[in-house]
Amino acid sequence: GESVGLHLPTLSVQEGDNSIINCAYSNSASDYFIWYKQESGKGPQFIIDIRSNMDKRQGQRVTVLLNKTVKHLSLQIAATQPGDSAVYFCAENTPGNTGKLIFGQGTTLQVKP
Amino acid sequence: ETGVTQSPTHLIKTRGQQVTLRCSSQSGHNTVSWYQQALGQGPQFIFQYYREEENGRGNFPPRFSGLQFPNYSSELNVNALELDDSALYLCASSLTMADTQYFGPGTRLTVL
């Protein structure tokens, strides 16, 4: 069935270190991928997106990597800060299902001071 | 802040009742999508509205229905509430159907 999965439910890192959050997706036809950050009691916040014609995209302190061969997506956060502590979701969209985002279970990022 | 607002923030209902949740989209956005997020899970797509028409629906029963108004705000209606309907209901707006979706803060629905 449709699913977007994350490899680890919880990731704990030291403040200042780099974080890598992974995501495996199941539909090889998916052409658009998004990372969201969700803090407790809030709605998901857009971080960065990437389309299938790219394999890397950089934002401010964040980088998304897409490996279509193995259907893998990752989010890299540089110099992780306490404010980065949240649940991170990857989501995918497929042609023909425009607007229907499929979310994974989420990875909780804990930043230790 | 995304500019997407939802009301109410919290709601408590009993089984069998009906509920209406509201969403105001970000200025300039003509598309609204609704999601259900159970505790500890990722959001699940309910349906999307584009220019007042339903554009795609997830695996939810017909008792979940919606509307979009000429100003692109939207309502989610749930009839005959069940205990499993307890969740965070999220609304997301986008410029058009295929664009980035920006989420509101959600409405926490508890069904007793």
Task: Note down, in words, how this protein is organized.
- The complex is a heterodimer of chains A (113) and B (112).
- With 113 residues, chain A is mainly beta.
- Chain A has no helices and 11 strands.
- Chain A has strands at residues 4-6, 10-14, 19-25, 32-38, 45-51, 56-58, 62-67, 72-77, 86-93, 102-103, 107-112.
- In chain A, the strands form 2 sheets. In chain A, strands 2, 4, 5, 9, 10 and 11 form a 6-stranded mixed sheet that branches.
- The model of chain A has no long low-confidence stretch (mean pLDDT 90).
- Chain B contains no helices and 11 strands.
- Helices cover 0% and strands 51% of the residues of chain B.
- The interface between A and B is medium-sized, with 24 and 28 residues.
The average pLDDT of chain B is: 95
Termini separation of chain A (Å)?
40 Å
Order of helices and strands of chain A: EEEEEEEEEEE
Largest interface: A-B, 24 and 28 residues
Question: H/E order of the elements of chain B?
Answer: EEEEEEEEEEE
| Global geometry of chain A | globular
The number of helices of chain B is 0
Condensed summary:
With 113 residues, chain A is mostly beta strands.
Present the secondary structure layout:
The complex is a heterodimer of chains A (113) and B (112).
Chain A: E1 4-6, E2 10-14, E3 19-25, E4 32-38, E5 45-51, E6 56-58, E7 62-67, E8 72-77, E9 86-93, E10 102-103, E11 107-112
Parallel strand pairs in A: 2-11
Antiparallel strand pairs in A: 1-3, 3-8, 4-5, 4-9, 6-7, 7-8, 9-10, 9-11
Chain B: E1 5-7, E2 10-13, E3 19-24, E4 31-37, E5 44-50, E6 53-57, E7 64-68, E8 74-78, E9 87-94, E10 102-103, E11 107-111
Parallel strand pairs in B: 2-11
Antiparallel strand pairs in B: 1-3, 3-8, 4-5, 4-9, 5-6, 7-8, 9-10, 9-11
